[in-house]
Amino acid sequence: MKTTESETEYHYGVIARAIALIDENPAAASNLDHLAAKIGLSPAHLQRVFSRYAGISPKRYAQFLTLGHAKSLLTTRHSTLETAVLTGLSGTGRLYDLFLRWEAMAPGDYAKGGAGLTLRYGWFDSAFGPALIVASDRGICGLGFAAEIGEAACLADMARRWPKADLQHDQAAIAPWANAALSAKGEASLHLIGAPFQIKVWEALMNVPAGHVTTYSEIAGAIGAPKAVRAVGTAVGRNPISLLIPCHRALRKSGEMGGYHWGLPVKRAMLAWETAAFEAQG
Q1: Would you say 29 and 36 are in contact if contact means Cβ atoms under 8 Å apart?
Q2: Stretch 142-146: mean pLDDT, rounded?
Q3: How confident is residue 89, by pLDDT bands cut at 50, 70 and 90?
Q4: What is the DSSP pairing of strand 187-192 with strand 166-169?
Q5: What average pLDDT does the segment 85-92 reach?
Q6: DSSP string of the chain?
């Protein structure tokens, strides 16, 4: 399916070009005229795009897109998961009104590779490019982004996760959950389909407040497996419900971003967007 360019996709395209330019020449971020010329927009247009997308100036947002931003977040907003849960920070620190309900598939059912499941999917516009959403009758079980890897690869990736499921294109059936999830307003149900260890990791990720980050070792400690840092990293990477289960908030202990299944530029844009929204809340 070919996705037409929407306003949100256009905004993400501008952000992606800004990331590439900042990587090429970090000093460009401090000069609006230079950044605008390189992107191919007027300074005023660039100002409007960034302000509409992130609510802050291009210069400030560009600072959040730098590779060093992750280290800064780890220093200033490292979320200790145990504290977040005890204080309710994971709930009160949310940047939006979306209410998530979730349930996990039984381990025996997961081992069947999705046999007997009907999964419906559709493509939707998002602030981070075209989003593929997959859902069972119980809720969203997959959310991926195609901006960096392409739609065909994104769909194939999701299909491989549940090879025996009946995968059907049905945009209308899942639109209410999808629209709630991507607009961050309303209620969305999640259906976690994974191995027991993976689900523990994903549940821990959902306790990391928006605008904050955590580390793989912190997650390992929170689920009672402090020595399983490498396995935690693998489980984070296999998270099928991006954004809603916020694997983009997990960093290496060094403050490096590590990889991101849907492309590192998408992860950087997510962290920058959430930082901007967090700061705008004041």
Answers
A1: no
A2: 97
A3: very low
A4: unpaired
A5: 46
A6: -PPPP-HHHHHHHHHHHHHHHHHH-GGGGG-HHHHHHHHTS-HHHHHHHHHHHHSS-HHHHHHHHSTTHHHHHHHH-B--HHHHHHHTHHHHT-SS--EEEEEE--HHHHTTTTTT-EEEEEEE--BTB-EEEEE-SSSEEEEEE-TTT-HHHHHHHHHHHSTTSEEEE-HHHHHHHHHHHHHT-SEEEEEE-S-HHHHHHHHHHTTSPTT-BEEHHHHHHHTT-TT-HHHHHHHHHT-SBTTTS-GGGEE-TTS-----TT-HHHHHHHHHHHHHHHHHH-
Model confidence pLDDT, tens digit, residues 111-120: 888 899 999 9
The catalytically annotated residue of 247, 257, 266, 276 is 247
The residue written with tokens 């999964």 in the block is: 119
Q: Which two tokens stand for residue 54?
A: 């992130």
Do 250 and 81 touch, CB atoms closer than 8 A? no
Q: What is the pLDDT of residues 199-247, one digit of tens each?
A: 999 999 988 888 888 999 989 998 999 999 999 999 999 999 999 999 9
Interacting residues of 274 by C-beta distance below 8 A, sequence separation 6+: 95, 210, 211, 249
| Residue 154 is among the residues annotated as catalytic for this protein | no
Residue 47: pLDDT band with limits 50, 70, 90: confident
